[in-house]
Amino acid sequence: MTIKIYGVPISTCTARATACLYEKEVDFELVPINFFGGEHKQPAILSKNPFGQIPALEDGDLTLFESRAITAYVAEKFKETGTDLIRHNNLKEAALVEVWIQVESQSFDPAITPIVLEYVLAPMKGKTADKAVIDANLVKLEKVLDVYESRLSSTKYLAGDFYSLADLHHYPYTHYFMTTPWASLVNDRPHVKAWWEDISSRPAYKKMTEAMASC
Amino acid sequence: MAVKVYGTVESACTQRVIACLLEMGVDFELVHVDLDAGEHKRPEFLVRQPFGQVPVIEDGDFRLYESRAIVRYYVAKYADRVPSLMGNNLEERAMVDQWLEVEAHNFNDLIFTLVLQLVILPRMGEPGDLALAHSCEQKLEKVLDVYEQRLSKCNYLAGDSFTLADLSHLPGIRYLMNEANMGHLITERKNVNGWWQDISNRPSWKKLMKLAGY
Hints:
The complex is a heterodimer of chains A (215) and B (214).
Chain A: E1 3-7, H1 12-23, E2 28-32, H2 43-46, E3 56-59, E4 62-65, H3 67-77, H4 91-124, H5 131-151, H6 165-168, H7 171-177, H8 184-187, H9 190-199, H10 203-213
Parallel strand pairs in A: 1-2
Antiparallel strand pairs in A: 1-3, 3-4
Chain B: E1 3-7, H1 12-24, E2 28-32, H2 43-46, E3 56-59, E4 62-65, H3 67-77, H4 90-123, H5 130-150, H6 164-167, H7 170-177, H8 184-187, H9 190-199, H10 203-211
Parallel strand pairs in B: 1-2
Antiparallel strand pairs in B: 1-3, 3-4
Helix pairs in contact in B: 1-3, 1-7, 1-10, 4-5, 4-7
């Protein structure tokens, strides 16, 4: 039975989940949600995610929400085949993957999300972007990317010299961020730039962006 | 050799790690970092944690930061000690991960902002944003309604056993009940309150409360 993902390709968190499925070459069926029509707040979806958010995953009897729990599940279930996203055979490497998964979740995401939501999403909803919010978060993001620049000057990828789930989690918001006027925050940092160019050249990233464009 | 934990016994994220180490019976030594004096922003500390945050652990040569990564590491390292803290199979583990993510993304920011505005800023002599605090409180009510519904179906967040998902909530809820004076959010909800009474009465958490001098 095929894994089902409830969401929309242009949604950053749905894209995080589907990128992982693409990377692991696991078949799935995307069940579209009428996001702008508020379908995610309706009972059918609330029964899958009581917080009324997308994505949700169904795999047989298992229903899961939270994109990073979904990617962790997919990476664990299919750990013996395809790209080794979680280094399950090496406890210390696995721990370092987890450190940078948390860094993305706790430091990178809170800074980049408001910028993307204001610049990309607000106009879609007919609102003006809040410049103060953008400016405040650009300052935070610069500081985070300074740490990334230093890290990536000693390792090829975030958790070490191997691509991992920690790098993949950065895909969706960074993809949108690079379409904003502030892409220089990435491009002006040589190691961050090289890392982004590398990870965004992977087939899974291309599949993710093609799905976004076809929406 | 005992694990060194760099942090403070009052910091919520340090508490998350200490609670886990106490649950798992892992020997540790708390190395106090003087946050008030800005020790965590100095070069010697930034070598340990480049984002200038606590906690950091050093286990022999191995250094880790991010409290939620640290607790996952120790549960994996000592899986034979308390096997159920991350679930016993793939599906149970997925549920633990799901509720750990809920704590990180739907719960923590609200608690953190509330505590910052109502407790930390006033302590530093600055005015807290009461409107923001109130808005967080309202959002937290909705989030805890979901928890109330969840805990009407099972004893703990990820299922019928205590896991890292429950443990991860302990420090934040303690702040909510005490310094932030928002205990009503918990006590007004029968299942959430029952769950809180249960998890906060675990010997490991009580030991931490003693260590912290609460």
